Amino acid sequence: MTCCRPNTVRFVLGFSTASLFPETVAHQCQNFFYYCFLWISPGTSLDFDTHPTRAYGARSAAFAWANASNSATGVVLIEKFTNDHISSTEFRKGAPSTRPWGLFMPECPFCRVSHQVKAQHANNQRLNLDCDCGARASSVRQPARVEQVMANHYVYPFPCDLEDGITWKLGMQTLTGRWTSTPRSLRGSAPHKTDRT
Ligand SMILES: [Zn+2]
């Protein structure tokens, strides 16, 4: 959905999934409009362009309320502040074992796939990542550009391609992986940093 009235709100709200039954988000979309245009979320400015914007606050309020929708899809908000300033973020429910901090499970840089990677809590909100090949990334911290906005709900850049490296070890070898939702075919040819210890 879009809203483009001059000097008021300029945003696009969408869903980061290949397929979605509209019924599963209809109620939340209704709430989004309510929070954005009829009711002001606490801590949100009356000014449409001040961060956190009304659309930003409305997304959190509407889509965290119905947790089920966020396990199926992320909610993307693209906001235009000026011609040079466009913000694009995704909001999603996180689950340590499947969606750590709301993100895609990272690839193991040794296997170059993510489906073999399992995550579990380490200490202090950190995670240990283990791949079936034997590689492990220990005590991985929440990436810097991921913001927790509500219990178990996170906002991060969309598309997600974070600078934070994940240090993986397999035997004596160390490789650095990344948090990204960009398909490998679109990522260019930059190889993973390799560092032998
Ligand atoms: Zn692996």
Rg over CA atoms: 19 Å
The set of bound ligands, ions and cofactors reads: zinc ion
Structural class: alpha+beta
Point out poorly predicted stretches.
190-197
Number of folding domains? 2
Distance between the termini: 51 Å
**Main beta-sheet strand count, sense and barrel state:** 6 strands, antiparallel
Biggest β-sheet: strands ordered side by side in the sheet: 1-2-3-4-9-8
Tally of helical runs: 3
Mean of residue pLDDT? 83
Measured by DSSP, the beta-strand proportion falls in 35-45%
Give the % helix.
10-25%
Which labels suit this protein?
single chain; 12 strands; alpha+beta; elongated; 197 residues; 36% strand; 6-stranded antiparallel β-sheet; 3-stranded antiparallel β-sheet; 3 helices; binds zinc ion
Helices and strands, with pairings:
Elements: E1 2-4, E2 10-15, H1 23-38, H2 54-65, H3 67-72, E3 75-82, E4 85-93, E5 117-121, E6 127-131, E7 136-140, E8 147-150, E9 153-157, E10 161-170, E11 173-180, E12 194-196
Antiparallel strand pairs: 1-2, 2-3, 3-4, 4-9, 5-6, 6-7, 8-9, 10-11, 11-12
Helix pairs in contact: 1-2
The protein binds zinc ion.
Protein architecture, described:
With 197 residues, the chain is of the alpha+beta class. It has 2 domains: 2-93, no CATH class; 100-143 and 163-196, no CATH class. Helices cover 17% and strands 36% of the residues. The chain contains 3 helices and 12 strands; from the N terminus they run ββαααββββββββββ. It has helices at residues 23-38, 54-65, 67-72, and strands spanning 2-4, 10-15, 75-82, 85-93, 117-121, 127-131, 136-140, 147-150, 153-157, 161-170, 173-180, 194-196. The strands form 3 sheets. A 6-stranded antiparallel sheet has the order 1-2-3-4-9-8. Strands 5-6-7 form a 3-stranded antiparallel sheet, with no helix packed on it. A 3-stranded antiparallel sheet has the order 10-11-12, with no helix packed on it. α1 packs antiparallel against α2. It is elongated and about 60 Å long. The N and C termini lie far apart (51 Å). The model is unreliable at 190-197 (pLDDT under 50). Residues 108, 110-111, 116, 131, 133, 135 line the site of zinc ion.
